[in-house]
Amino acid sequence: MTVAATTPPALAKSDHTPPGNPCAKGNGNPCNGNNGNAGAQGNAGHGTSYSTPDPFTVPRPEIENRGAYISQIGDSNDATIVQSADTAYARIRQDGDGNHARVEQKEDATSYADLKQDGDDNDAEILQQGLTGNVAYLTQSGNGNHARATQSAGATAENGAILTQTGSDNRMSLLQDGNDNQAILTQDGDANTMSAQQLGDANRLVWQQSGNGLTDLQITQSGGASMQISQSN
């Protein structure tokens, strides 16, 4: 599976000389002929190693002509799509007021879900169990903004998710369980609470938060792991 993201700044890189380097400025230990003060060379020092994910893309499905589509404008707005067919596609659009959306997909092939909520309470849940892979897009703009996504794939299958929240309370949680988990999680403005769990091999996570109540990092990765984290206010 290929999710497209711009290449973010690398993590955990520093131009400073590591502690214990005998050649560092101000160390009196011998280095390159500089006898200085007597003493043993310092230890090499230990640090945390981070891996930054390569740019990746979550593909749009090529099956948009065979799926379920719901569009709602104004007032309470409650929508649910449940699919069990092979390679199914679900799309929900909600604009204004209550806005509750849920997609449940249990497929023998790949599951695709695309949810967008604009304004007011905005509560969304995606549950995907595609044996050959799962793809989820979820966008919430303004007001309540509570998003939950769970993706469970087969032993050799892939999960991809792009979840975005803009403005207001912004609560987001993601659980991915599969062989190749890829996620881009973005919150922009206001409360901003976010958690991510990636279980399996080849995990890649981009975590972006800006403005107001930035959460403590709540990230779990097992197996191969790489991540990029950006927080700013």
Automatic annotation (TrEMBL):
Chain intervals with Low complexity compositional bias: 22-43
GO cellular component: pilus
Presence of keyword Cytoplasm: no
Organism: Stakelama marina
Keyword Transmembrane helix: no
GO biological process, one term: cell adhesion
Name listed for the protein in its UniProt record: Curlin-associated protein
Annotated transmembrane regions: none
Region described as Disordered: 1-58
Similarity section: Belongs to the CsgA/CsgB family.
A Pfam family per the record: Curlin_rpt
Entry keywords, A to Z: Signal
